Recover the amino acids of this structure.
């Protein structure tokens, strides 16, 4: 995870980068292929399954090699789902630590766009995390305590997922993959055509095929025949979650009534953590959160605040431009140009003044802007030969996020598309259980905006939801947050948590996940709620936290971001 922002410095560095590249091309003339020691070897002893649907799954058991899940008797599998010659999606499946054969299946996806689900696996809710000395440690609060967990790297090009492969290097300024004619073969990386998949809706179709391919092979893989399915996601997952779930749900209905072939699933819950669901609803909350949050922090002065507010509401400003985008069909180049313009207007002028003048963390307002948490040692961990072999990959781990994917999405304006809140409405009207949860220290997808979305969702129980009160969210006698719930829909504000909630509040997050999956009331977890269950309490989430002075930055968390050096691109990931 890294944060970066355009500046004059960035521009100079970019120019400097071109010079460096030319130098490297010259210096390379005495390069000999024998020195290409850094290239990962072909993994050994890879197993192959052909599913009844004729999809190939290549896999290994990384736990057996001491990688990640080492709990005795608990199986894990990683490798590729090969849909065709140009589509190889990396998966990592962890059996539930308890009763895997009865446990449901949960797909976890990080956002970005272009961010890898390994972030969630290693930094948040997976069976292990990685320490500074690059050893993996078992996480007692892994969500695999209650569910089988599937992590996918998507779309292609993210993490170890690839269309094709080539040896080359990472551009030190942008992080983009370059072929060996630039700086020699320093590693092997994925090659994709990023513009071939550049919207959330296209990603949903691709992910459905991958999921179907995987589920088809799962009985042969671990003997798991469960058809109970959940999707949990984060950040840009505020787009992915509602759109993917809705698309999956519709395809499932077509399978159920025989219109199309496939494996039918039972769609249980959708979880979205610190999600960007609707920029139209959430954008106005950036300046409010920067100035008037529950930590008593004023991240910038009135001049900057007034600027951001003016940019939000002015004629032809952020909100107007999002409306223009919404009235297009979002298909023609001219439509997409309008949406991209809206995205840039909002992100540069409403969201970004905080990055220029706040000095505080993008993902945690309590921290400095060069936030050392959560540490991302896992990026270096995944670049070791024994780990690559154990996972069944012959690629280097480029970074936790793919710039090409990010920019391809930016060029369609997918960020400000209006349809994700509509997807949520559809799901809630079909009685799918939806849990929104927001760490209350996150700026980029702050809980003010999340709460506003929860109240805006125009579904059959909108009024009842809005009048349900905020109840304390209590785990083992400790209050970790405040929750509003009516029947299947809940909004939880988690105290003292940044963007990646389970990193900051592991115990409370696991218990939230368990209660939602089991259909228990979120506040106390002591009853199976009915369709008319309503939480009770105050109309507003009023809890406040003590002021946190701006600390000086501490350590750099890994060489993870060194691929992108001192970070000079304009990408601000919602991962
Ligand atoms: C690529 O992975 C290999 C291990 O297979 C490692 O030795 C090499 O340093 C990695 N290259 C980069 C650029 O990280
Ligand atoms: C399965 O797919 C392979 C190509 O991946 C193809 O050669 C083969 O004919 C297919 N088999 C069936 C039964 O469709
Ligand atoms: C790993 O997880 C453990 C247990 O949750 C936690 O105490 C530790 O701080 C984590 N370490 C890192 C590097 O994230
Ligand atoms: C690595 O770090 C962990 C936790 O900090 C520690 O328990 C372990 O002994 C260390 N391993 C080595 C080889 O230094
Ligand atoms: C390497 O990339 C450059 C620029 O993208 C391209 O012109 C060149 O043909 C590529 N070389 C190879 C060997 O693919
Ligand atoms: C990439 O995909 C786009 C959209 O499908 C297509 O128009 C373009 O030709 C492709 N580019 C390459 C280099 O294959
Ligand atoms: C199957 O279900 C879909 C989605 O609900 C519906 O649009 C379609 O008409 C149904 N087809 C049949 C043959 O029932
Ligand atoms: C801060 O928020 C509170 C509660 O939402 C509101 O009453 C107050 O007017 C706000 N203050 C400013 C300066 O916007
Ligand atoms: C507010 O902050 C901006 C950015 O640091 C600065 O340029 C401006 O002078 C400040 N305005 C006031 C009134 O202090
Ligand atoms: C949407 O597309 C239809 C059919 O191409 C067209 O008639 C209509 O004018 C378009 N609407 C907008 C707002 O562009
Ligand atoms: C309290 O919540 C209601 C909706 O439940 C909202 O309309 C109102 O603006 C909130 N008040 C404050 C001060 O945030
Ligand atoms: C990053 O900054 C440090 C210190 O400011 C500097 O030594 C280093 O060369 C920079 N790295 C890059 C890739 O610009």
């Amino acid at each position: 995870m890294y944060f970066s922002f355009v500046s004059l410095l960035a521009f100079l560095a970019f120019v400097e980068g071109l010079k460096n590249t030319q130098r490297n091309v010259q210096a390379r003339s005495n390069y000999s292929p024998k020195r290409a020691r850094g290239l990962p070897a072909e993994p050994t002893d890879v197993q192959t399954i052909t599913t009844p649907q004729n999809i190939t799954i290549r896999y290994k058991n990384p736990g057996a090699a001491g990688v990640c899940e080492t709990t005795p008797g608990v199986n894990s599998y990683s490798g590729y789902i090969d849909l065709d010659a140009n589509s190889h999606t990396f998966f990592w499946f962890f059996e539930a630590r308890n009763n895997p054969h009865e446990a449901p299946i949960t797909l976890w996806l990080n956002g970005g766009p272009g961010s890898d689900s390994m972030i969630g696996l290693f930094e948040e809710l997976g069976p292990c995390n990685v320490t500074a000395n690059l050893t993996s440690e078992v996480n007692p609060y892994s969500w695999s305590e209650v569910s089988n967990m599937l992590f996918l790297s998507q779309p292609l090009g993210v993490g170890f997922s690839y269309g094709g492969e080539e040896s080359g290097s990472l551009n030190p300024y942008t992080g983009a993959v370059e072929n060996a004619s630039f700086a020699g073969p320093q590693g092997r990386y994925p090659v994709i055509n990023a513009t071939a998949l550049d919207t959330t809706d296209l990603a949903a179709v691709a992910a459905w095929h991958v999921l179907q391919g995987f589920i088809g092979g799962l009985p042969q893989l671990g003997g798991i025949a469960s058809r109970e399915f959940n999707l949990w996601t984060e950040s840009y997952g505020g787009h992915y979650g509602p759109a993917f779930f809705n698309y999956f749900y519709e395809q499932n209905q077509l399978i159920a009534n025989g219109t199309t072939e496939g494996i039918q699933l039972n769609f249980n819950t959708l979880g979205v953590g610190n999600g960007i669901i609707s920029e139209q609803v959430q954008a106005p909350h950036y300046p409010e959160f920067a100035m008037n949050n529950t930590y008593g922090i004023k991240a910038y002065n009135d001049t900057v605040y007034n600027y951001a507010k003016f940019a939000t509401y002015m004629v032809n400003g952020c909100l107007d431009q999002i409306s223009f985008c919404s009235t297009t069909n979002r298909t023609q180049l001219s439509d997409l140009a309008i949406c991209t313009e809206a995205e840039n207007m909002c992100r540069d002028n409403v969201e970004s003044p905080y990055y220029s003048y706040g000095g505080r963390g993008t993902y945690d307002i309590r921290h400095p802007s060069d936030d050392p948490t959560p540490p991302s040692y896992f990026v270096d961990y995944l670049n070791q030969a024994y780990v690559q072999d154990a996972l069944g990959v012959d690629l280097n781990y480029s970074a936790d996020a793919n710039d090409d994917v990010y920019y391809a999405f930016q060029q369609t304006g997918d960020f400000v598309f209006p349809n994700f809140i509509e997807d949520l409405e559809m799901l809630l009207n079909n009685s799918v259980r939806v849990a929104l949860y927001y760490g209350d220290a996150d700026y980029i997808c702050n809980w003010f905006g999340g709460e506003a979305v929860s109240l805006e969702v125009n579904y059959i129980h909108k009024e009842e939801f809005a009048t349900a009160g905020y109840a304390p969210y209590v785990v083992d006698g400790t209050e970790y947050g405040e929750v509003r719930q009516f029947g299947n829909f809940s909004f939880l504000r988690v105290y003292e948590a940044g963007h990646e909630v389970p990193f900051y509040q592991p115990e409370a997050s696991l218990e939230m996940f368990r209660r939602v999956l089991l259909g228990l009331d979120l506040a106390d977890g002591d009853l199976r709620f009915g369709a008319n269950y309503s939480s009770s309490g105050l109309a507003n989430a009023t809890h406040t936290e003590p002021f946190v002075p701006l600390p000086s930055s501490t350590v750099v968390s890994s060489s993870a971001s060194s691929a992108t050096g001192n970070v000079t691109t304009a990408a601000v990931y919602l991962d």
